[in-house]
Amino acid sequence: MRRNHVRDWSLRALGVAAVVAAALGFSAAPASAHNYPVGYAPAENSVVTEQPGHFTLTTNDTLLNLDGTGTGNAMRISGPTDAPLYYGDGCVTLFGAKLETTAQLGQPGEYTVTWQVVSTDGHPVSGSYTFTWQPAAGQVLAPGLAAAPTCGTTTPTDTPAASAPSASSGAAQGAVASTDLLWIGGAAAAVILAVAATLLLTRRRPTP
């Protein structure tokens, strides 16, 4: 009987080690193993006066593109901060170490670019940055989407006209922030589950 207990405890110990290794590999791998941003266009904290058209994230290494469609890589443009809407069609293109999407901007203000890429080691990496949109005279302002676009499903008829800030703009901003948080939080959820499994296994001690 005791031999069985020893064997069970050994198996549990191996399970704990595997879970810890997975969690550490996912959330705390050396920085050199994960892609990281080296440049943005438009630049972070810049003031943009003409429609940029293209938004580009450049990383330090080639991005993973297993199925050729860029699955797992994404970029979203939202703003302005006081009355946020989404812009673009949700589609992205990979060019080696670069991720790119197209969009026309709406009302003036601060805009946020939220991105997610899959590193060469297979781990998702995400982040965001802001810039200020101050359109020069003659710039055509684009309508926006109340919900984040999904590539291949959004058409021009889906986009309501952008409106001036209203009393409900705070709620709209919260909705945009919540959606982006859920989008980039999937990777963190996996780490939390791994830690929970580790705690559960370590608390179950063998009986004499």
Structure description:
The radius of gyration is 22 Å and the shape is globular. It is an alpha+beta fold. It has one domain (34-186): Immunoglobulin-like, CATH 2.60.40. It has helices spanning 2-27, 169-184, 186-203; strands spanning 37-41, 47-48, 53-59, 74-79, 85-87, 93-95, 98-103, 109-118, 124-133. It contains three helices and nine strands; from the N terminus they run αβββββββββαα. The strands form two sheets. Strands 2-9-8-4-5 form a five-stranded mixed beta sheet, with helices on one face.
Q: Give the count of structural domains.
A: 1
End-to-end gap? 9 Å
Topology order in helix (H) and strand (E) letters: HEEEEEEEEEHH
Major sheet: order of its strands? 2-9-8-4-5
Provide key terms for this protein:
208 residues; 3 helices; five-stranded mixed sheet; alpha+beta; four-stranded antiparallel sheet; Immunoglobulin-like
Gist of the model:
The protein has 208 residues and is α+β, with helices and mostly antiparallel strands. Helix content is 29%, strand content 25%.
Topology:
Elements lengths: L1 H26 L9 E5 L5 E2 L4 E7 L14 E6 L5 E3 L5 E3 L2 E6 L5 E10 L5 E10 L35 H16 L1 H18 L5
Parallel strand pairs: 2-9
Antiparallel strand pairs: 1-3, 3-7, 4-5, 4-8, 6-7, 8-9
Helix pairs in contact: 1-3
